[in-house]
User: Fold these one by one.
Assistant:
Number 1:
Amino acid sequence: MYANMKHSFSFLKKAVCLIAAIIFVSASFAQQKANSNEPKAKYVFLFIGDGMGLAHVSLAEAWLSQKDGKLSFTHLGFTQFPVMGVATTYSASNIITCSSAAATALASGYKANNGTVGIYPDSIPLTQITYKLKELGYKIGIMTSVTIDHATPACFYAHNRKRKNYFEIAMELPESGFDFFGGGGFEGSRNKEIKDAADKIYGKVADKGYTVALGVADYKAKKNGAGKMLLLQDGKKRRDSALHPIIGRKDGELTLAQVVESAIDFLYEPDGKGFFIMAEGGQIDWEAHSNNAAGVITETIDFDKAIAVAYEFYKQHPDETLIVVTADHETGGLGLGRERGYTYDLTVFTDAIKGNKSDEKNVQNYMSRDVVDTLNKKARIGWTTKGHTGIPVPVFAVGTGSRMFAGMIDNTDIPKNIMKAMDATPIYTDHYYKRKAIFDKERPIGPNDIVFLGNSLTEGGNWASYYPEVEAKLAKKGGAIRNRGIVGDTFGGIDARLDQILPGHPKTIFFLTGANDVSHNLTADSIANGIIKVVRRIKRESPGTKIYLQSLLPINESFKRYRLLNGKTAMFSEINAKLEKMAKEEKVTFINIYPLFLTNGPADLSLPADQQVLNPNITRDGLHVTKDGYKIWSEAIRKYVK
Ligand SMILES: [Zn+2]
């Protein structure tokens, strides 16, 4: 129990009861958007206790109680958070997840295959929320009590088909540009097959502007003026190992709580945008794999101490902070109770937990297989496996947006809800990744291709069929008209997939996007700027490509199909006006097709902007156009398609 918590939560607890009642009638509660009146989370902590099921938490709490001779639970701090939920953890490939598939889900909102890091099952790299938040100006911190290229932290910055490719994963860390990393160093630096693996990794870390601090004192000495920080353990020998397990840890060795404290110190700026911190208690899992209850107890208590540091920060910034504590999966199939008899006795672990720290032999003895098995039997606690199980894991949350984590949710909801709590742009859809995977399998874009780039409006067009002569002419040179539209895409999503297009230096790009950005509540200025940013990147990376920037089409709200576009009709002409002006400055051809889609054509331009609507005869939903609409469109741009 953290100091003062009970008192400050009395109000919140009432609110939670009310919320629980709401959940009862609304199963889809977790999917809903945060109350728009609620303040946005500016500082977010995601704590992942690796392998930490509810039984592991209970084991620690019951031991704290039993060691004092009490028959109850002495609560840890985070279990007293006002919101509690349960998350399912299955992966894309297995009903029982591994750590990397689960961490990918927690980092990206997408299920991945067991064994993979940060990639969609079709091998397309996912954009983790850390990258999205970094793009939005948040500071990013990633830390763990194990090595920093291990599965859980890796999934927040890396993309790899194999979680064991530690060297490759380590080399991706400095590429991320994230602001703070901490904990154990690089597993990959010990790779014997790679010549000078450690030098290569640390060389890149330095090249990319990271300051390496060894221990807290060194961090304090180096933090001023450091752009980005990597905080590891003191002593070169231990630098690339996990932090010392709690059993046998000596005073002065780096702890996860110290790493979290340093991260907050490094990332917090009073007038900044905010930060996202992921901190993993990685050794709860390792101890559970060994079925070592004493280790699970100590690692869970230590994890709670790291969370307590974040909770202190929360108390100073209660309206702007969100703390979420969960696990990636359960490890060991731990049960409190074994065979018959309605009791268990955890005091048998007390000697192991309090073991003589100066006596390494004593410590090793308590970790040995025989002793572990004997103590488990004596304590009457059971384990079903030395691997993971498929049982859902607990979620504890406090702070702004925390109520979204109540009830039964899926692990993929956690990053989505974090983004909602921060009011950050939603991450990409399944369809986006599927289309990207299809594009990846097709012939790469080449210099004789004409590319139609955009969102659903572009995806819905059968562009090659509108211009058969052009298609035939391109075919002779090995080119074609290529559809690169994706339903739901935004300027950000398009920017993130330009690497599938620009390296081939296509002949021409017809570009149109914006409607989804409008539904994401951005201003006309920021949408126009975002679109022009894409245009500038095309110019820069493929200077020979002819760019046609097409205007947004009008919408028709009377169809009542797109709630997020309510009241936004006028914005479409407003954005177009900005685009026209900016396109001129960029010396890019702007094609204004907007007037052609109005109910009475260009004549409607004399109406106020909010009455200029998409002709109801060429749309079925007020946003997309029918075959007749595509006819108008394809004719309007025919002279440019050559
Ligand atoms: Zn594990």
Number 2:
Amino acid sequence: MKMTEIETRGLVLLGCGKMGSAMLAGWLDGGLPASSVWVLDPHPSAWLQATGVHINTDLPASPALVLIAVKPQMMGEALPKLQALGNGETLFVSVAAGTSIASFEVVLGKETPIIRAMPNTPAAIGRGITALIGNAKSTDANLDMAEGLLAAVGQVVRLDSEAQMDAVTGVSGSGPAYVFHLIETLAAAGASQGLPADLAMKLAKATVAGAGALAEAADEDPSQLRVNVTSPNGTTQAALDVLMQPEGGFPDLLNRAVAAATNRSQELSRG
Ligand SMILES: NC(=O)c1ccc[n+]([C@@H]2O[C@H](COP(=O)([O-])OP(=O)(O)OC[C@H]3O[C@@H](n4cnc5c(N)ncnc54)[C@H](OP(=O)(O)O)[C@@H]3O)[C@@H](O)[C@H]2O)c1
């Protein structure tokens, strides 16, 4: 991670809840000195206080970057505190779901470099994936800096347009919850077939985690991996005949689920 500019000019974190602390933990582990970080949060956790970062103190005059990690509904109250840093040399990066770049420009000014990012909860264990898009004022150097910071909690991809952010939210932002539900329901189905509930849950968690890791590590794409474990008329084939049915199967269900999340993200962005 290229930290020199951040180390000298400082980094401000607005909101240090689940996502803010996951990122801060990644930066500190990656070697960012605590003395270069200023956190604004009304109720700093014991963990945060033990990190040695500046908490709720005066901010540097021109920090390299402000990372916004408050809930969208707290934005109206939290953001005006940072208005003085707008239209300057400070890059703003927001991870707030459904909050458009335009709404930040209204408060911070159109000359402010702003990057919108959508991370997901596996960031808490350094296995997230974050999508980025910048406004007209953000430079390649700004995007590189944001990517370097967000890489501390997982993979980073760049988008071509902000409009893609709603579908990204529907796939990877909200996606971990779909996978958690898959684990729950796979375990419950195992219990229905007579397995003890804790054994079924252990099998379901390890299967989803292992298959996910294999899908990322393998040279073959997931369709081929599926074919590789499906012998004709075997057990997997029997299950896939149910899951892959055109109506009410996985393709149909996930299509409808992702469309619902994407539509909701669009509605939220419209305010
Ligand atoms: N968690 C995710 O997986 C995820 C994924 C993608 C995007 N995001 C985005 O990340 C942002 C944070 O989500 P989160 O899950 O980390 O929420 P969270 O755990 O509730 O964290 C928000 C933090 O901001 C603090 N806060 C509230 N008002 C503030 C103010 N005026 N000034 C400074 N800090 C303030 C909250 O303090 P109190 O709790 O004391 O009010 C809390 O510590 C959201 O905008 C969300 O859309 C989250």
Number 3:
Amino acid sequence: MSLHSDPLEALRLGAGVRRPRRWRRTPALRDLVRETSLDPADLVYPLFVVPGEGVRRPVSSMPGVDQLSVDALASEARDIWALGLKAVLLFGIPSAKDPHGLESHADDGVVQRAIGALKSASPELVVITDVCLCEYTDHGHCGLLDETGYVLNDETLDVLGRIAVSHAEAGADIVAPSGMLDGMVGAIRGALDGEGFSGVAILSYAVKYASAFYGPFREAADGAPSFGDRRSHQMDPANAREALREVALDVEEGADALMVKPALGYLDVVSSVRDRFGELPLAAYNVSGEYAMVKAAAANGWIDERAAVLEVLTAIRRAGADLVITYHAKDAAAWLQAR
Ligand SMILES: [Zn+2]
């Protein structure tokens, strides 16, 4: 007797009764039961601002990404807004670096001027700023150093507060401390509130791993450490439970939103942070190395770039991220608008 000729046997096995494929038969049926959405408003586009005028310098390891001077930001802001994107994350490359990263909190610093340019071109565009010292220090580390080259924690917190206040004064909506120093969120909250910026939110890089996938970013942001690495403050890729401890501390200190970085190798962490701290918005950073891999494979004709990018971004959202910070944001937004 064949399997399907015996109704009871078929029922026992579920054949003919439970058929998940019924929901996959047509595009409309699939649209109807899709669990995860992807919208341009879910994406944040990183920008790298450099000194000078009329600069649009391609980042060789990140095809499609350029370093821009402040004067180029007005048209960029309007393009970004027209694509349906709501937010940018700003990184600055200063004109001069020193051991203390002084330009990070200068009134006429490159980021401070960039915020003004973006806001006057597109007032509604949400401007998020990276708050760290690594792009500004001549040694390329995320804080002040002791004589052995170790990043000093508490001595650096005061500087981070000053950077955040200077970004707020320039008009930033959200500051995003990325240095993984203990107490950074509380220190920045105190500094902002002390200067009357209680409305400026903190998106904390609460869980940032010491990842090999930041390589291309270091070209884009000119922020490679001149010696050593960042393992004394960024997390060990082997640790997931420790991530929950990092998040709990940042929540206690007053973080308004959380981030996991990188995204693709850490979707389990995105998911567990979502489960444990679901009351706060969660961002995941689809980092430069992840971007470069997709671009390189696509350039070789090895993958379909559009399909791969939309799949990657959907997967990060499915893991639990509300927001995805991604260099693919402009392309993805254009594809989503055309859908
Ligand atoms: Zn840093």
Number 4:
Amino acid sequence: MSKSGSINTKLSQSYISEMVKAIPPSGIRKFFDLLSSIEGVISLGVGEPDFVTPWHIREAAIYSLEKGYTMYTSNKGTPELRAELARHLDSRFGLTYHPDNEILITVGVSEGLDLTMRAILNPGDEVIMPDPCYVAYPASVSLAGGIPVRVPTTEENNFEITADDIEPRITQRTKAILLGYPSNPTGAVLSKEGLAQIAELAKRHNLLVISDEVYDRLVYGVEHTCLAALPGMRERTILLNGFSKSYAMTGWRIGYASSDKEIIGAMTKIHQYTMLCAPIMGQMAALEALKADDDEVDDMVRDYDRRRRLIVKGFRDIGLSCFEPRGAFYAFPAIKVTGMTSEEFAEKLLWEEKVAVVPGTAFGKCGEGYIRCCYATSLPDIEEALNRMGRFIEKHRKK
Ligand SMILES: Cc1ncc(COP(=O)(O)O)c(C=O)c1O
């Protein structure tokens, strides 16, 4: 770059806010920018379903276009989708939310997270969350002027956050606990008892709980517990969920938040100035997804489960200790037998064997010594990735 180019870069950097400068780029995207330049890579990287959205859902969106539904919707989302969501939450969890003012349709859970933090945080307020956790959690808190407080979780404790671990980290500034179970990146699921203890803690300290349940349908051999459905929790929970993972609809960008009307009102205020509304086509598709029976979701879950069992066994067979994930579509094997850091491991594996995984440290310090592998990819690709990784481990095992 020319001399003047670098001066311009410096100049432009000086315009960027300190808050944004302080946030690291997503450890996932940073790594995957490398991918496009390498041929023959098997990616266990980006966390999205390899299924195409079921046909009847796509068809509903096509019909909606044909009928000319191309305009804004109500800021809160279409009344039909909110009403259907209210029915869905009632029939699944016995939760009643008023579709007029207690449900907001968002642009994915991502927007729901951002709105939540901006609606509840004053500068310096603290939000407690597990480490490792989804990359957007600490960033969304920091961007809203809050302080993320991390609670270490370990493989020995099944990567479950507990009320006992949370309690000593509660201060005068603590506003909320942020949970995301089933977990990205570990696949951990919290038991009903564990959640109930966290719920009691939240009540005792008068805290909000933000519960990102975007993987709620993707559980294997265990039941998902909806936090808001526990006694006394509806009032103090902001439930975030969406269509991306369960219905293979990542590109449609539809999520929702449900909570008490004051909180949803505050979130709607921000949403109406920043986003206006979620895309109408996506909302039409989401309505169809909810109205249909669950057969296709169940088929996808069965399929993920097959791959989950294959990959976990595969890691153990090549000598990697691997916690048994019970939800989402990630495995989180330990790579400590190589003595490498997670970043070194992921980079070397990519260059030497052309398998892409995400270093555990992208999700927090406690991810050191682990890698995240998304198994929402074909069985033959998983098998080949395991072969390549087996070779890699043989070569790099600590002597
Ligand atoms: C835990 C978790 N929450 C939220 C999201 C984002 O979901 P959406 O596509 O609905 O914005 C992801 C995406 O990977 C995720 O893993």
